[in-house]
């Protein structure tokens, strides 16, 4: 078997498991959204979408420490294992403490926070209930992201897939039980959020029995140097995830100003359905990352380049197929979430979905480029691309296109942004590939 063929097969092995895991988790998000639509209607969907930036903060912090720390771990575990022996433990302890602080801050400033997120007299009561409970998931989400990335980079992608799929099945059942059997509605949906990362962490604890593992647990004090090393390599995925939260926040406010709560609910439906394509793209990128990092660390740059090109073919093809299917079946998909048969929600969602989804292929390529640049220790270049994608170009586009095209202009901001980033990113990655193969 040639080196290139072996790399491709190994990537396929990682990618399949990561896609199943990520799509499994996105399936839970979709089902949770559907349950909320049934239990609390359009305003419940609005509250869910207003709260999404908080999830992005939890997830982004987990990615900052998880992807960055795991990449640092992969780069040094072969030649300098002692250097990264306590990295995982330090990051987990720090993340849990940070999560507890976030719980306190959310509870202290709950009403001002909800108003900042866009809640009004119609949604404030539901928002207090939902956000007040889901705040307790903060440390669990961060620790889960860290553990998933370290276990994957410790050579056990099958367990990460099993953890996420088990989490999905268990949490869907818990969600259903709380909302429908106990009649807890938004309270039940928020409680299920806490169980989501907890189920995953319980399964991931089986990694302790993995005979080839290098990960160990130590009760240690987090060191600033370790946090800096992880943050440097994890800054790009952190900015990428935070950009989702910031863009959702700006999308929400522009739609509230243009058309009110039902436009936000429609955007929530579209954005949650879009999670499927983004989950698949992240699955491919996170499948490429450990291979590219390992080969780069072994001074085999050509293999890292092979990993990138193979990942690019996979992610673009998959995104195109998913986009086509979702656009073809947009009417039944939207109808599924429009449980109150609200005509405004139906109109905005049916119009916005095909516009928004033209971004999927470009977004998939961009996610891969950002993660690959991090994997080959080009954190600064990766950060630049992430910053352009999530802030510098996207945010002005949302405002500009909202002014030019109203609600449809808001939905069009995403594909225009992703296309521009693909063009810029292609130039950046081409330079890095030339450097690696020189």
UniProtKB/TrEMBL annotation:
One of its GO terms (cellular component) is plasma membrane. It is found in: Cell membrane. GO terms for molecular function: antiporter activity; xenobiotic transmembrane transporter activity. The keyword Transcription regulation does not apply. It holds the Pfam family MatE. It comes from Limosilactobacillus ingluviei DSM 15946. InterPro entries: MATE_fam, MATE_MepA_subfamily. This is MATE family efflux transporter. It is a multi-pass membrane protein. The chain crosses the membrane at residues 20-48, 54-75, 87-110, 130-147, 159-180, 186-204, 246-267, 273-293, 314-335, 355-376, 383-404, 410-429. PANTHER family: MULTIDRUG EXPORT PROTEIN MEPA, SPORULATION PROTEIN YKVU. The lineage of its organism: Bacteria, Bacillati, Bacillota, Bacilli, Lactobacillales. Its main location: membrane. Keywords: Cell membrane, Membrane, Transmembrane, Transmembrane helix.
